[in-house]
């Protein structure tokens, strides 16, 4: 694999910045099941930019648990991860990178794009299993920091009541997500890291991540 010198990280970020501010195309159908969702506005904003898709053409299923396959797809699509800046001797195959991902699966391309854009996905990830809040945070932040070329910063950690329940590998990403207002704690200052994240919660986090990236690019 050889990184193309003609496409710099800054250029890629600028392209993303432009796309975030415009609608790629408007879908004719609307989600019929998000009227009472706390993430209605965020979901529709992402849908209008063609950055998220529903489970069906008219259902987003906001309260459903997010599967690993859906989580990786959401991150890859939402951050517009691609292989545009990379040369390969031969086309990469998902099955060469992940033991449980079939090359013909609808999410195979998302796994490939995420992998080559800095998202640290386990090689043995089971696409059918539900993704936890801490896992989605870790993968989303990894993609965001790579795409935005964001510097690693030293921060004063936010006190989290259930900090002991976290996977220590994810703690830094979680803390940065709180600092950048991509995530938030509940009323008891819990993060609930091991809870399976819902599709609407993931949509809110993706929306917040894109808002942060847009603000970072403009600063």
UniProtKB/TrEMBL annotation:
<protein>
    <submittedName>
        <fullName>Subtilisin-like serine proteases</fullName>
    </submittedName>
</protein>
<feature type="domain" description="SLH">
    <location>
        <begin position="157"/>
        <end position="219"/>
    </location>
</feature>
<dbReference type="Pfam" id="PF00395">
    <property type="entry name" value="SLH"/>
</dbReference>
<feature type="domain" description="SLH">
    <location>
        <begin position="26"/>
        <end position="89"/>
    </location>
</feature>
<dbReference type="InterPro" id="IPR001119">
    <property type="entry name" value="SLH_dom"/>
</dbReference>
<keyword id="KW-0732">Signal</keyword>
<keyword id="KW-0645">Protease</keyword>
<dbReference type="GO" id="GO:0008233">
    <property type="term" value="F:peptidase activity"/>
</dbReference>
<keyword id="KW-0378">Hydrolase</keyword>
<dbReference type="GO" id="GO:0006508">
    <property type="term" value="P:proteolysis"/>
</dbReference>
<feature type="signal peptide">
    <location>
        <begin position="1"/>
        <end position="26"/>
    </location>
</feature>
